[in-house]
């Protein structure tokens, strides 16, 4: 299940969305986006190809570069890579189809992208909680924030 979605253009965060309060990425989203963008760019220097997934203790971070944008999904550990990759490609097609015209002369204004998460929810590509409970307030994980940022900061 998609916990978080981040979309980046040239190091700038266009969209950073979490799909449940227990899945918030804590810390500065600009710093996190910049780190992921640099990591994927660095990985492209290797002959084996670019980075498509990072595995952490509690989550996976999945990457797709398409149409000059970097799409990042933080997903549950038990999600198959093939399923998440399919979702990433769908999200990339939807986003670029919906907002490509705004990206031609992108000036840094990101409010145009605010409704994209609603589109994903309406299409059933994402769900607005961890999927285990109807409301995040009932979820036993609601007080256990996503540790991705903490794990990344330990690496630095």
Q: Would you tell me the structural class of the helices and strands?
A: alpha+beta
Q: What separation lies between the terminal Cα atoms? A: 27 Å
**Percentage of helical residues?**
25-40%
Strand content: 15-25%
- The CATH topology: Beta-Lactamase
Give the strand order, joined by hyphens, for the main sheet. 2-1-5-4-3
SSE topology string: EEHEEEHHH
Q: Based on Cα principal axes, name the global outline.
A: globular
Number of domains: 1
Mean pLDDT: 80
CATH class: Alpha Beta
Overall description:
The protein has one domain (2-155): Beta-Lactamase. The chain is 34% helix and 22% strand. It is built from four helices and five strands. Strands 2-1-5-4-3 form a five-stranded antiparallel beta sheet, with helices on both faces. A hairpin with a 2-residue loop joins strand 4 (59-66) and strand 5 (69-76). The chain is globular, with a radius of gyration of 15 Å.
Write the layout of secondary structure elements.
Layout: E1 2-9, E2 12-18, H1 29-43, E3 53-55, E4 59-66, E5 69-76, H2 81-103, H3 116-122, H4 148-155
Antiparallel strand pairs: 1-2, 1-5, 3-4, 4-5
Quick structural gist:
The chain is α+β, with helices and mostly antiparallel strands and 156 residues long.
